[in-house]
Amino acid sequence: MSASAPRFDILGIGNAIVDVVAAVEESFITHHDLHKGAMTLIDADDAAKLYAALPAGIESSGGSVANSCAVAAELGARVAYIGKVADDQLGEVFRHDIKAAGVHFPTPALVGGAPTARCLISVTPDGQRTMNTFLGACVELGPDAIDGDLVASSAITYLEGYLFDPPHAQAAFLRAAELAHKAGRRVALSLSDAFCVHRHREAFRALVRGHVDILFANETEITALYESNTWMDAADMVAREVGIAALTLGADGSLIIEGDTRINVPAHATSVVDTTGAGDAFAAGFLAAHTAHRRLSESAALGSLAAAYAIAQYGARPPKEKLRRLITGV
What we know:
CATH architecture: 3-Layer(aba) Sandwich
CATH superfamily: Ribokinase
Helix content: 25-40%
Strand content: 15-25%
Largest sheet: 9 strands, mixed
Oligomer: single chain
Distance between the termini: 40 Å
CATH class: Alpha Beta
Number of strands: 14
Strand order of the largest sheet: 6-5-1-9-10-11-12-13-14
Radius of gyration: 18 Å
């Protein structure tokens, strides 16, 4: 069907989480038996103990797609977000922070249930981030939280793979994808984490095959999805299932796939301080440019710049002044 002009360029749907990012030594990872470089779900008690053990850090609204939404808004995109927070102090921190970034966030707070989610991010001297996440109120996000009018008025609905863990999220994803396509819009998905893909491979495969137009993944995530020996084999497989695949390859840049077309885009050299949010920033830059009708190579180049800014400092979001410089040229 022919879609009217969208009100929003990007609608993100994901885990609404307050991020706590702290620098630690390698011994901290070992002492607390953390799974280095991965995202691990923890309960409320473990979250309280780990939070107490962490050194002072940076606290801000987070969650993978929420970070992408905030960065895309700073890059000039019109952005909205759906995610569940509680009616508590951290919920207010999240709401204030993401709205201050220019993101429309109309989802009502959860009253009388679990507290707002938090992700405890331990960053070692090599820049690796180890995430331990208490999902809290996020688990309450289900199909009834998907605003059909908001989906229909957004050019791309961007789904967060991490959100597959809560029980009602897969149904919410399917509802959002169906509403988007019914309105003539497109659906993007981030695979988020290889361990998440392993937990839900068949459901992810079905979602990608039947409902996703743009897929974001890194090497380990895409090989996990297709159970391939190499990401190159997985790239050939994903080309048959989605319109566009954006594969991030760390220091080797990214590969953009559209049908038989392959576009290699180099990474931008920078010192690595904290890899938290690199993929989120890449997706933000790519989607902000893509919805502004830039070429795929230009979209990936903007994503690479945003990712380089993200990993050169602590925290998941690049400095606002650097992002604005990308669109103003000054």
